[in-house]
Known about the structure:
The chain has one helix spanning 3-13; strands at residues 21-30, 35-37, 43-45, 57-68, 71-82, 90-96, 101-102. By secondary structure, it is mainly beta. The protein has one domain (20-95). The strands form 2 sheets. It has a 5-stranded antiparallel sheet, with no helix packed on it. It starts with a helix and ends with a strand. This is DUF2577 domain-containing protein.
Amino acid sequence: MTGDTLLDMINSRGGNPNEYSDIVPGKVISIAPLKIQYSSTAILTEDFLTLGEHVTKHTVKMTYQDRSDDGDIKRTETVTIDQSLKVGDGVLMLRCSYVKFWY
């Protein structure tokens, strides 16, 4: 789910903005399957979680200027960024109470 979709859902709901969501800290306790603990007894499973790209392994295209003796050369490369969650990682989650999911 993208941020735009989340924003559309929030805007279509109406009501008091303070009722929309909370920011909740948690800790990754398992990767496969993904489980995040957010209180002494509450554990979220993959079914309730939506991960942002910044906590996954993904590829991006990067364009940059490469300097050489012959002048600057514009280069584009595909790189892999791996910021996957690991057991023990602390996370901040956005809890969306009205649709029962966590981002």
